[in-house]
Structure to design on (858 residues):
């Protein structure tokens, strides 16, 4: 099987090389059959990589430890669900996932454009196959997922327990889909510049892919935040970690592009800017991929100790140099057709939104790569922490949310006073009302959070008003009932109203971020059973310890041998709120030196967070039990000495009982955080809005069909 | 003012604003940054009140807890100078003796105090495969 996989990789490399040659030759000599053949090689690449991916997936599911990646990241004790996801937890497997997703998305993009822009598409084919070839050659020459060991080890090391979380199944594919989709606009943008066809058509044909990239990347980022919040024992969802930042940067420039592209469509402006954003987004996506794999920056998420740095640096340098050369050499063609008429117009608000987004991206870029920058400039590696990021990103985010309320309602070209009055009275009043209510409620100490709440109210006001007016107009015209009118309104103009829904979701999300970061209460302390602690307005008491021995599956179905936890009773003003059960899972290690008993629980311990999540607030708890007391250690030592591996679990049973009988002081981490749920809800709203906007409109489909039938009729007439 | 001149003025204003903002950003990044040091460098360079990113390995047998405070020693990767750190806040799951950690510390008196929640564990085994020397590829 491994042989089949390796053959697939080599074949994929050959197909990439052939496809690049064929499409370039085809477009240079105007021989369509060669560019066609180049496009088909992308389909072939997709098929070959699908076979390779299936081979690896089957190896994981069948516990084929002859595969090095399977032995390193999976085991018989890893539950099947996580074995399937373990494929992309290794460097090699994730490279394969990247290349595979790239080939699938590229096939889709080239299939959809097969009858249009043949020259642009041919260049794009070559560029996409270039990326494909790059990733396939990384696998062939540096990190082959099909390397095997003979004889196969009897058992694997198991999937890192931290990754045993349901989101793990979809977070990486989402993120990688986002990254790979970012390269499609880049390929078509470069193709358009190379073919000197920078009209609106290439923008139109990649719009949907840019949007899909944005949607997938956003969903991936949010799922990562969710994983961090509910799986890692620190209770945060964003830490300005290098890898998190790397995924946020292309998302920000992608967001900017989705807005400025509308100005190009409507007014023929900002062409240089748009094509630069597309190129920057694709390059940032590749840099994000690189950052995770090179180990150049400290990150908790990075794949450590690998040597993929140099090839990536070369690729990124080529991308940057190529982009700059193309944009500069084609600048005459990218002349704007119009000028900005007024600073108070939708164009300038969009421009401001673009500047803020790019500014945000620059801040994050500088902060993320600061260790490298400072090392280069001062010879001393230094890094900036979250406070530095917050200082710049908080005001910028505030402006961004405010603009997301202004942009949709301000007039194109030049806003008049009448237009302003018509559109802004309600939202401004709503924002002021929010301010008065908040100040009246005695919330004064957090000005940034209050400002964010007011901006959020402003957005709800302005977007809500748009929906209300649109629905009212439809009701007046068609006499539909209010809910029906609203649905019909959205259906008539999916892109516009989908965008509005996204804006509402963003406002909800940022309100959640502002509230949960500003008004959070956190406590860390040691408790014995019977003791309690206060966190915010809640009282949490440690009722009793819990212990579960699960040689195969623990309660969370993540495969830990032993799980020690606590039953916690959460009350507010004497009323019961929730019973929580945080625990810490102890996993088996592959270290024979830890002894027969010690190795059963000697792997990495992992917190299993328990929380009571609600719309208004989350009560979040985690426990760190003390498993190293002299009494518990003695059980392990005696067990190691006397028990053979097959009976070692008996000692774990003793250990669990001893822990329950004389529970030592356990360390707890409690967080009372308001409106965290709004972040996830906001994300869902954004996703829904995105889907509404991206879904092909029924009218457009119909139009295309009738056009085609008309063309067919004309063809028939001509023949007759 | 004619439109062309107006545009030039606008452009100049916008560009100057951008330059000022960018300089502020760059300036603060240098003043707010904490240098990344190994324990032996930290012993030589530490000034009270400044914060540093300490990178090193947790000393075997040095970890013990006193209430909310976690005490541990950090030594150079090759051993040698060890620095005792008093840390409060979240302890990442992979934190172990012998593991490589990064923690932001400041010198207070003779002690190094870890900044709350700044502890990061670099787990050498996470996501990575065993060194190629241990495997034979076929």
């Amino acid at each position: 099987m491994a042989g089949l996989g390796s053959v697939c990789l080599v074949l994929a490399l050959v197909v990439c090389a052939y496809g690049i040659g064929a499409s370039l030759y085809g477009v240079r000599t105007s021989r369509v059959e060669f560019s066609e053949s180049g496009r088909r090689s992308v389909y072939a690449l997709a098929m070959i990589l699908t076979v390779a991916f299936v081979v690896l997936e089957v190896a994981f599911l069948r516990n084929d430890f002859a595969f090095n990646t399977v032995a390193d990241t999976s085991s018989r004790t890893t539950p099947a669900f996580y074995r399937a996801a373990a494929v992309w937890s290794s460097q090699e497997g994730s490279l394969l996932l990247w290349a595979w997703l790239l080939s699938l998305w590229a096939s889709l993009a080239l299939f959809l454009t097969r009858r249009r822009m043949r020259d642009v598409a041919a260049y794009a084919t070559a560029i996409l196959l270039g990326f494909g070839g790059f990733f396939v050659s990384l696998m062939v020459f540096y990190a082959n997922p099909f390397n095997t060991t003979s004889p196969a080890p009897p058992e694997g090391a198991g999937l890192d327990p931290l990754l045993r979380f349901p989101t793990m199944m979809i977070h990486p594919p989402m993120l990688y889909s986002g990254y790979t989709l970012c390269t499609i606009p880049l390929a078509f943008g470069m193709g358009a510049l190379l073919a000197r066809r920078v009209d609106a058509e290439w923008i139109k044909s990649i719009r949907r892919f840019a949007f899909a990239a944005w949607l997938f990347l956003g969903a991936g980022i949010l799922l990562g935040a969710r994983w961090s919040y509910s799986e890692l024992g620190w209770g945060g969802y964003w830490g300005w970690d290098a890898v998190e930042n790397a995924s946020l940067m292309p998302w920000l420039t992608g967001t900017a592009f989705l807005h400025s592209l509308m100005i190009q469509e409507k007014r023929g402006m900002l062409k240089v800017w748009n094509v630069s954003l597309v190129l920057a987004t694709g390059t940032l996506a590749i840099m994000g991929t690189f950052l995770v794999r090179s180990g150049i920056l400290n990150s908790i998420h990075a794949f450590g100790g690998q040597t993929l740095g140099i090839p990536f640096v070369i690729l990124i340098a080529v991308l940057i140099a190529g982009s700059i050369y193309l944009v500069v050499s084609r600048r005459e063609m990218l002349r704007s057709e119009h000028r900005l008429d007024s600073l108070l117009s939708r164009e300038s608000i969009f421009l401001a939104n673009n500047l803020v987004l790019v500014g945000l991206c620059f801040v994050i870029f500088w902060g993320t790569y600061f260790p490298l920058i400072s090392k280069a400039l001062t010879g001393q590696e230094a890094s900036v922490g979250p406070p530095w990021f917050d200082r710049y990103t908080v005001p910028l985010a505030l402006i961004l949310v405010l603009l997301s309320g202004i942009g949709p309602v301000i007039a194109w070209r030049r806003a008049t006073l009448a237009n302003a009055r018509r559109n802004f009275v309600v939202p401004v009043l709503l924002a002021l009302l929010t301010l008065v209510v908040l100040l009246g409620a005695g919330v004064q100490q957090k000005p940034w959070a209050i400002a964010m709440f007011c901006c959020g109210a402003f957005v709800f006001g302005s977007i809500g008003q748009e929906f209300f007016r649109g629905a009212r107009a439809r009701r007046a015209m068609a006499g539909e009932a209010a809910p029906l009118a609203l649905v019909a309104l959205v259906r008539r103009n999916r892109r516009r109203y989908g965008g509005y829904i996204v804006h509402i979701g963003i406002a909800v999300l940022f309100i959640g971020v502002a509230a949960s970061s500003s008004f959070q209460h956190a406590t860390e302390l040691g408790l014995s059973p019977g003791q309690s602690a206060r966190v915010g307005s809640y009282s949490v008491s440690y009722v009793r310890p819990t212990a579960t021995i699960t040689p195969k599956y623990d309660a969370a179905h993540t495969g830990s041998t032993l799980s020690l936890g606590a039953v916690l009773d959460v009350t507010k003003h004497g009323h019961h709120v929730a019973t929580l059960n945080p625990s810490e899972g102890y996993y088996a290690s592959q270290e024979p030196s830890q002894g027969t008993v010690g190795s059963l629980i000697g792997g990495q311990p992992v917190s299993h967070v328990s929380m009571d999540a609600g719309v208004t607030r989350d009560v979040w708890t985690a426990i760190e039990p003390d498993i190293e007391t002299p009494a518990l250690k003695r059980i392990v030592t005696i067990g190691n000495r006397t028990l053979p591996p097959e009976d070692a679990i008996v000692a774990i049973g003793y250990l669990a009982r001893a822990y329950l009988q004389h529970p030592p002081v356990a360390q707890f981490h409690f967080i009372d955080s308001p409106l965290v749920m709004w972040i996830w809800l906001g994300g869902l709203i954004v996703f829904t809005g995105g889907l509404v906007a991206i879904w092909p409109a029924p009218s457009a489909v119909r139009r295309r069909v009738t056009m085609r039938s008309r063309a067919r009729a004309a063809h028939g007439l001509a023949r007759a | 003012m004619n439109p062309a001149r107006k545009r030039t003025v606008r452009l100049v204003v916008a560009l100057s604003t951008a330059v000022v903002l960018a300089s502020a950003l760059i300036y603060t990044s240098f003043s707010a940054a904490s240098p990344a040091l190994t324990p032996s460098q930290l012993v030589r360079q530490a000034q009270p009140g400044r914060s540093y990113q300490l990178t090193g390995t947790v000393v075997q047998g040095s970890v013990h807890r006193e209430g909310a405070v976690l005490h541990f020693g950090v030594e150079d990767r090759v051993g040698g100078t060890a620095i005792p750190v008093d840390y409060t806040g979240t302890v990442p799951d992979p934190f172990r003796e012998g593991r490589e950690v990064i923690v932001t510390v400041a010198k207070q008196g003779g002690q190094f105090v870890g900044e709350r929640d700044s502890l990061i564990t670099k787990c050498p085994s996470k996501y990575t495969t065993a060194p190629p020397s241990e495997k034979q590829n076929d």
